[in-house]
Amino acid sequence: MAFEDMWEALRPIGRADGGGYRRFSWTAADRECRAWFTEEARSRGLTVERDPNGNLFAWWDAEKNTGASMGGLIASVASIAADAMTGDFHGEPVTGRRDAVLTGSHLDSVPDGGAYDGPLGVVSAFAAIDLLRERGATPRRPIGVAVFAEEEGARFGVACLGSRLATGAIDPARARGLRDADGVTWGEAMAAEGYDPDAIGADPQLLSLNCFVELHVEQGRALTAPVGLASAIWPHGRWRFDFTGEADHAGTTRLADRRDPMLPFARTVLAAREAAARHDAVATVGKVRVTPNGVNAIPSSVAAWLDARAPSEEAVRATVADVRAAAREAAGRDRVEVSLSEESYTEVVDFHADLRDRLAKTLGDPPVLPTGAGHDAGILSAHLPTAMLFVRNPTGVSHAPAEHAELTDCLAGVEALADVLDELACR
Predict the structure, then answer these.
(1) Within 10 Å of residue 80's Cβ, how many Cβ atoms?
(2) Helices 28-43 and 2-10: crossing angle, nearest 10°?
(3) What is the mean pLDDT of residues 353-373?
(4) First to last CA, the chain
(5) What is the Cβ-side half-sphere exposure of residue 218, based on CA atoms within 13 angstroms?
(6) Is 151:25 a contact under the CB 8 Å cutoff?
(7) Residue 117 is assigned to a ligand binding site
(8) Binding positions for allantoate (predicted)?
(9) What is the mean pLDDT of residues 402-422?
(10) Comparing C-alpha atoms, which of 267, 242, 53 is closest to residue 163?
(11) Does the annotation flag 404 for ligand binding?
C-alpha cells in the first residue's frame, strides 16, 4: 500500500544508532526529509511550494480538477494576498488558496525521538489524498499538505518556530538570532540552505486559509480507540535558568570556598518536581549545558531548561513561580548568581468547537480528549479554525524510540483524515 511504501522510504532518514531519530532543522537529515516530501508530492502531481520561513506545502488545487493536468502551478503568495476572495469552513466553496483546507504536520524530531511524532501526519496526508482519488473525489476547494519547520525546537530552542513565524507570533529579528549549541543562528542556518533570512515573517497565504486539520500520534495512554479528536491543548512553555558561579579545581578547592552552580541547579530540579506535584502540573528539566564540563573542574556555569505544562495557565504560572523562588534561594545559599528567562509560552488552546463538532459527526463521534503536547495546530488556532485527529499509541510513549502505532490504527487514521478532507473540501 502507498502508506507502507512511504513509511518505509522515510524510516531510515535521520535514524540514530539507538533506534531514535535526530532530524534537526537545516541539517543533512532535514534536507533528506524535504527531498522525500517533494518527491512524494510531485509523484502525485501536487504543486510544491516553500514559504520564506522554511515551511513546505504541497497543493491539490480545485481548479485543476476540470480536466487539465495537475501541472501549471499556482499564483504567487503576493498575488494571493491581493486576491479579494474570502471564505470560511461554513461558506460556499470558491477557487483560490484563500479558501483552502490544509493538513500535514512536521518532520523534525527531538533528540532520539520516535518515528511517529510528526511524520505520521505527513505520510497520512498523502495517503488520504490517494484514498480520495481512489474514491473518485475531487476538491471543490484546494487541499494542502504542510510540513512546518522546527516544530520541536530541538536545535534552536523555540517550539513551532515555523508556524510562529508564519502567523506573526514571534518577532523575525528574534528568530533570526536564535542560536543552536554550536552558536549557529537560525538566520545563518537558513541562508546555508538557500533561504533569505531577511524575508521571514507572517505569511498572508497561511493566514487566509479555510481551516487546518492536523493528524498526530497520541502522546499518552488516554486514547483507547484507533482514532480520536482533540478538545484542547494545555498551556505550556519553556524557561531557561542560568546559574553562574566560579570555576576552580575539583581536588584542591575546599567545600567552604566553592561557588559551585551545580548545587543550586540540582536543588532546582528537585523543586520543579515538588512544585509540579503541588499544582497538579508536569514539569521537566531535560536539557542542561555545563561549562566547562570537565570531570575534575568545578563548573563556572550551568544553563538548564524547564518545561512546564498544566490544564490551566494559573497552575503553569504558579509552578514556574515556585521553581524560580527555589532557584533564587538555593543560589543565594551557595553564593551563585541565577537568572530566568522565558523562551516560549503558549496559552491554552480550545480547538474550534463548530469544526470539531462537524468532524465528530463525520467520524461517528470518536473519543474527544485534551493533550499536554504542543502542536502547530495550536499556533494556527489563533488565526483560523483548527482541529486535530489522534491515532492510538499502544505504548503511551512519545519523544523516545518506543513510540509506536499499529499499522491497522495508522490506516484507520488515513481513512478518518480522508473522510474529513472529503467533508471539508470535496462536498
Answers:
(1) 18
(2) 160
(3) 97
(4) 26
(5) 29
(6) no
(7) yes
(8) 238, 296, 309
(9) 98
(10) 53
(11) no
Q: Helix 407-421 crosses helix 353-362 at what angle (to 10 degrees)?
A: 110
Q: Which of 295, 322, 346 is the last residue of a domain?
A: 346
With contact defined as beta carbons under 8 Å apart, do 48 and 70 qualify? Answer: no
- Residue 293 among known ligand-binding residues: no
Question: Does 399 carry a binding-site annotation?
Answer: yes
What is the pTM assigned to this prediction? Answer: 0.86
Pairing of strands 227-233, 349-350: antiparallel
Distance CA 410, CA 5 (A): 13
Q: Within this chain, do residues 335 and 379 fall inside the same structural domain, yes or no?
A: no
Per the annotation, does 216 bind a ligand?
yes
302-341 pLDDT, tens digit per residue, is 999 999 999 999 999 999 999 999 999 999 999 999 999 9
Residue 317, marked binder: no
Q: Are 302 and 338 in contact (CB under 8 A)?
A: no
Same domain, 412 and 294: no
Say which CATH number the domain at 342 has. 3.30.70.360
Which has more confidence, 417 or 87? 417
| Per-residue confidence (pLDDT) for residue 138, from 0 to 100 | 95
User: Domain check: are 30 and 78 in the same one?
Assistant: yes
Q: Do residue 129 and residue 157 come from a single domain?
A: yes
Residue 205: its pLDDT value, please? 87
- 383 annotated to bind ligand: no
Query: Exposure pattern of 22-42 as b/e (b: 16+ CB <10 Å)?
Result: bbbbbbebbebbbebbbebbe
| Three cell numbers, residue 119 | 511524520
133 annotated to a ligand binding site? no
DSSP H or E segment with residue 211? strand 211-217
Clarify whether residues 227 and 252 are in a common domain: no
* Structural domain range at position 162: 2-234+348-426
| 245-272 per-position pLDDT tens digit | 999 999 999 999 999 999 999 999 999 9
Domain boundary among 311, 331, 346: 346
CATH number at residue 49: 3.40.630.10
- Tell whether 146 and 65 lie within a shared domain: yes
Considering its fold, how many domains does the chain have in total?
Answer: 2
288 and 406 housed in the same domain:
no
Judge if 380 and 407 occupy the same domain: yes
